[in-house]
Amino acid sequence: MLSFARNIRAWAALPLVASFCLSAQKVTHTHSAPMTERFGKPYVMVTINGKGPYRFVIDTGTGTDAFVSPELADELKLTTAAEVVVTDPSKQGGERVPIVLLESLELAGVKFDWVKAVRHVVTGEAGSCQGMLGFALFHDLLLTLDFPHRRVVLGGGALTPDGEKTILPFRLVDGVPVTRLRVNGESVEAQLDSGGGGLTLPLDLAARQKWEIEPVVFATGQTMTTRFDIRAAKLATDVTVGKYTFTRPVVEIHPAFPLVNFGSPPMQKFAITFDQKSLLVRLNADRDHLQLLAPPSPTRLTNEPKPELPPPHLVPLG
């Protein structure tokens, strides 16, 4: 859920994407590893510079290679190679942060060489999280987040269009995949964000909707630079993506983001495969009509006032 303003000292000297020991051309079979899901977010174990394993979250809504926590950067004695300004899709403010270089990062038997990583605090809903893998890291590989089977799969090859039934085109906005879906029949752009907390609508789109349950404050949200109230509501109409229909889903309303955000809770229904070279994404689910209930509760902020409880019909079950 982050975008990056590129600039600054030595930044231009760094390669735009990571290089791979196993490039897409050399990968002749798939490589997979377990993927833990907690509050919808996909967590995997990686090794860095031959050490670990360390627990990282995969965030397709982050348009960079990786993040590492300050604690892990200190443990590995990573030195600063450059600086970058970090902002979010709201473009409200920014933060100058250091870039460190990882000599190697390995996931599922695939080794990535000389990976750029932002040194910054990384929050994990499922407990300790030492870093984040961004979308740009997988530029030369097919990336599959198989939520039903709890696996991450890396491989070569390419996706083939199918008339936008299960395979959709996307474009990159600040390194983040953006495709189109329909809300009450209206075609809108949506970020595909495995680090996002739900199916979220911007304020202008939400203002045009009919509700089965009216919007109420659900939680307080936070990006790196912005804090805001999150509202939840149940649509009186459907959301469709390709051939798949979410029937009257519970959605979130975020004032901080200009686009729909298709986050980790709706992604849980799918094995979702990204082909960045072809700019295509495949959604594979075991049924065409899906339900989306209240999103998982996000992480509370340190020293955040205790929020008012939402109505019982919007409290997630399980």
What would your notes on this structure say?
- The longest helix is centred in the first third of the chain and has 6 residues, at 70-75.
- The model is unreliable at 2-25 and 298-308 (pLDDT under 50).
- The chain has 318 residues and is mainly beta.
- The chain folds into two domains: 3-155, Cathepsin D, subunit A, domain 1; 167-270 and 279-313, Acid Proteases (Cathepsin D, subunit A, domain 1), CATH 2.40.70.10.
- It has helices at 70-75, 203-206, 264-267, and strands at 3-5, 19-20, 31-34, 36-38, 41-48, 51-59, 66-68, 80-87, 95-107, 110-119, 131-134, 142-146, 151-155, 167-169, 171-173, 176-183, 186-192, 199-202, 211-222, 227-235, 239-241, 244-246, 250-254, 260-262, 271-275, 280-284, 289-290.
- Strands 15, 16, 17, 18, 19, 20, 21, 22, 23, 24 and 27 form an eleven-stranded mixed sheet that branches. It has a six-stranded mixed beta barrel with strand order 5-6-11-7-10-9.
